[in-house]
Specification:
This protein has 416 residues and is mostly helical. Helices cover 83% and strands 0% of the residues. Helix 1 packs across helix 9, helix 6 packs antiparallel against helix 10 and helix 11 runs antiparallel to helix 14. The radius of gyration is 21 Å and the shape is globular.
Length: 416
């Protein structure tokens, strides 16, 4: 028989999990509008124009932002782990992302430097905030449910992407012609407002476990000291190190595909803006199903096996994308890529929670973020170089090298 106290506890836990997943619902407005659909095409076709350097500047700005986050992530994780509070940092970086995203509304033709700087600031806020957001997972559920709850979060994120695309489509339907550019820029404001509004419940509902509230402590110094100790003792965590290196390789390929997907569809396959929005709607829908379904599968089959399956799906996606010139087939690839995207991201996060020692979870999630962001420096540069000297098709094919290497190294990771 369930007591009233147990019932209240369960309801409280459900509210925490729901509020936590709402943050995923919120931040994908930035992800889908600014990083994948709207701003990449606006930046290349309007801001940079016909100079022919659109891919280079886009990849450069994205790589710079990821380099900054890669440097910050372990330190921020160590600082938050000491006790200053994850919410403070998550709130700061969320506001940074929201404000920089809103300011993109004022970026117009030839404002290349401003457009790059605002993208860098916004993406730093977005990615750095995820260090603290991910670290809340072990605090809102038990270890046996990591995969399921992580899957709920990603599924909510993809639902947020669909809602965002639905709201933004009327602003994009006339394309990037001069008379419609203000509507396109309005979508950047939409992304900022959407992110801010739906992120708020987490800050009011999810508790933040911390040991120190004093602002007199030099947390920057402590963060670097703890980070130094972790590096020195990293040999004691070889299993985690193997997973992080595997993650570095395969997430490199995944991130590169995401960043250049709309540009690839636009240039290589000649998609119009309506077809691109439809393509990403299919991707997000299938990703939602993949995150939810494979989150449950991971808790039963095992997170390592589940992750291996999803990475094999990615290899199939890369191979077919290289071979096809048919739009219908590419839509099918989008559905498969969505399933692989949702499941690989969700399962990676839950496997990381399983492997890390409890007293260093936030700090190790900093390393998790570090390897993910550092990989995003390399992938876009490789894709850009191959694409420039050969073609975008061979650029996509080069991504497969990272995926295969990641799978092979993943098999050496030991799980209970």
């Amino acid at each position: 028989m369930i007591t009233k106290e147990q019932s209240t506890c369960r309801e409280s836990s459900k509210r925490k999990i729901f509020s936590w997943t709402l943050f995923d619902f919120a931040n994908t407005a930035f992800y889908v509008i600014i990083l994948t659909v709207g701003y990449p095409l606006y930046f290349k076709e309007v801001v940079v124009g016909s100079s022919g350097y659109g891919d280079f500047f886009w990849g450069l700005a994205f790589s710079i932002s990821m380099a900054c986050v890669a440097i910050l992530s372990p330190v921020l994780g160590a600082i938050a782990d000491f006790g200053t509070g994850k919410k403070y940092f998550l709130g700061f970086f969320t506001l940074q992302c929201v404000i920089a995203t809103a300011l993109l509304y004022f970026v117009k033709s030839n404002d290349v430097l401003v457009g790059m700087v605002l993208l860098i600031l916004a993406n730093i806020g977005f990615e750095a905030g995820l260090v603290f957001y991910d670290a809340f997972l072990p605090e809102i559920t038990s270890e046996r449910s990591y995969g399921r709850v992580s899957g709920y979060g990603f599924a909510m994120g993809y639902a947020g992407s669909l809602v965002t695309l639905l709201l933004a489509f009327p602003l994009y339907k006339n394309g990037f012609v001069e008379s419609n550019l203000q509507s396109v820029r309005t979508s950047f404001l939409l992304a900022a407002i959407f992110f801010l509004f739906f992120a708020l419940p987490l800050f009011f509902t999810v508790p933040d476990k911390q040991r120190v509230r004093s602002f007199e402590v030099n947390f920057i110094r402590i963060g670097f000291e703890r980070l130094n100790v972790t590096f020195k003792n990293f040999s004691a965590y070889r299993n985690v190190a193997r997973f992080l290196l595997s993650y570095f390789l395969y997430i490199d390929g995944i991130n590169t595909i995401i960043v250049f997907s709309s540009i690839y569809a636009r240039e290589t396959l000649q998609f119009n803006i309506g077809e691109i929005v439809l393509f990403f709607a299919l991707v997000q829908t299938s990703a939602m199903v993949g995150a939810f379904t494979f989150g449950i599968v991971a808790d039963h089959l095992g997170r390592k096996k589940t992750l291996t399956i999803t990475l094999l799906l990615w290899i199939v996606v890369v191979g077919v994308a290289f071979l096809t010139i048919d739009k219908v087939v590419f839509y099918g690839i989008g559905i498969l890529a969505g399933i692989a995207l949702g499941s690989s991201q969700s399962t990676s996060r839950s496997l990381m929670s399983e492997l890390t020692p409890e007293d260093k979870r936030t700090e190790f999630f900093g390393f998790y973020s570090f390897f993910g962001k550092a990989s995003a420096i390399l992938g876009p540069l490789v894709f850009g170089a191959v694409s420039s000297f050969m073609s975008q098709r061979y650029g996509i094919l080069s991504v497969g090298i990272f995926l295969i290497s990641g799978i092979l190294l993943l098999q050496r990771v030991k799980t209970e």
